[in-house]
Design brief:
261 residues; alpha+beta; Glucose Permease (Domain IIA); 2 domains
């Protein structure tokens, strides 16, 4: 592993492992590859998760290191969530993730497009499968505006949780599949929830959300979502943490039963 990556992993894990700034500052500050101010090393778990997510997304961290970092960060996130007044929301309180829509907007045949096989969270942007639900809006001219309402469609938080990773900008030509995306960690249910292909985000790293909060507006960002053949939609994935590993969770029954707004 390159020295710069070792240093960055050290910074990400430092608070979880109980290392002090005083003990690590000389080593970090003298590194020729990475120079990180002391103030940046005392930061929230959500900021550190976003940094980790970029490494994972771009295939710059190997699986063993990724699993170690992920488990440490999830523990820190749970503590931060509780410390800042985060509440637990049961599945009965979940909200359908598109304002003005319901499960009829999910197509894809019998399985509703959900394919868990072949998916690997640790493969980042190169993962296979489609353990997700694409929720389509009425947008025949593909301008990201609802044809009936004449306005953009809000993406709502299905669960409660904390915003742990996001990408605010996407340009055509980028190979990033999710485009403008965000990840929310729900400590109460031990879930990571992914919302992709957005137009604009209304939340930031570390924000606490509850079911029904506005996260973004639906867009057409992302490698395949931007193509003409792709109808405008929200791409949503839910992963459950089992034995320290995020695995796909089919939440279609929950989407059917969720509160519509």
């Amino acid at each position: 592993m390159k020295k710069s990556l070792i240093t960055l992993l050290f910074v990400i894990l430092m608070p979880a492992a109980g290392w002090s700034v005083e003990n690590t500052a000389p080593q970090l500050e003298n590194s020729p590859q990475v120079k990180i101010p002391v103030a940046d090393r005392v930061e929230s778990a959500a900021i550190r998760f976003n940094r980790f997510n970029i490494l994972l997304r771009d295939s710059k961290i190997k699986r063993p290191e990724a699993r170690t970092v992920l488990n440490a960060l999830l523990g820190d996130l749970s503590q931060d969530y509780s410390k800042h007044g985060g509440k637990s929301f049961s599945r009965k309180e979940w909200v359908f993730p598109l304002a003005g829509y319901n499960q009829r907007a999910i197509t894809g045949g019998r399985n509703k497009g959900y394919i868990a096989s072949g998916y690997d969270y640790f493969a980042g942007n190169r993962h296979g499968g489609h353990p997700s639900f694409d929720i389509f809006i009425r947008d025949r001219n593909q301008d990201s505006v609802d044809d009936c309402a004449g306005q953009q469609v809000n993406v709502l938080s299905m669960t409660g949780g904390i915003v742990v990773a996001l990408e605010e900008k996407w340009e055509r030509g980028s190979k990033l599949r999710g485009g403008v995306y965000l990840w929310i960690y729900d400590p109460a249910n031990n879930l990571l929830v992914y919302y992709a292909h957005n137009s604009k985000l209304f939340v930031g790293i570390g924000d606490l959300v509850k079911p029904g909060d506005i996260l973004a507006t639906v867009g057409r960002s992302g490698l395949n979502a931007a193509k003409r053949r792709s109808p405008t939609h929200l791409h949503m994935t839910v992963l459950e943490i089992k034995n320290g590993r995020p695995v796909p969770l089919n939440v279609y029954p929950d989407l059917v039963a969720s509160r519509k707004m």
